[in-house]
Write a structure and sequence with these properties.
By secondary structure, the chain is mainly alpha-helical. Helices cover 42% and strands 4% of the residues. The chain is globular, with a radius of gyration of 14 Å. The chain starts with a helix and ends in a 19-residue tail after the last helix.
Length: 108
């Protein structure tokens, strides 16, 4: 059964998002919106969140992709507390309310 154009473009979008996420270095974070912009789809931040939520590839640092407002957001491997714990181990301060200081954000 052949793939539809929509399926192919969704797969290409996912691949671009994952490639951008891979570029976020240890000790830094990027917002879902920044990843969407860098992937060429500036209005698709929510879709980036969905892709990160469904990612189980350990080579993709999905824990480094966070909300634009500075909160860590969800994490498919144990919730926001686990995500915050991973970020702290990488040297990123996360306050008790789950917020990250702006100085740790990059535009990938």
């Amino acid at each position: 059964m052949p793939h539809s154009k929509k399926h192919d473009s969704a797969a290409a979008f996912r691949a671009r998002v994952l490639a951008v996420a891979r570029r976020v270095p240890r000790g830094k974070v990027a917002s879902y919106a920044a990843v969407a912009r860098a992937a060429g789809f500036p209005r698709h931040a929510r879709a980036v969140g969905n892709i990160m939520q469904s990612n189980y590839d350990p080579s993709i640092p999905c824990h480094r992709i966070v909300r634009t407002d500075g909160r860590v957001g969800g994490y498919n491997r144990g919730g926001w507390n686990k995500k915050a714990e991973r970020l702290r181990r990488e040297g990123i301060p996360v306050n008790p309310h789950g917020r990250i200081p702006r100085g740790y954000f990059i535009s990938p």
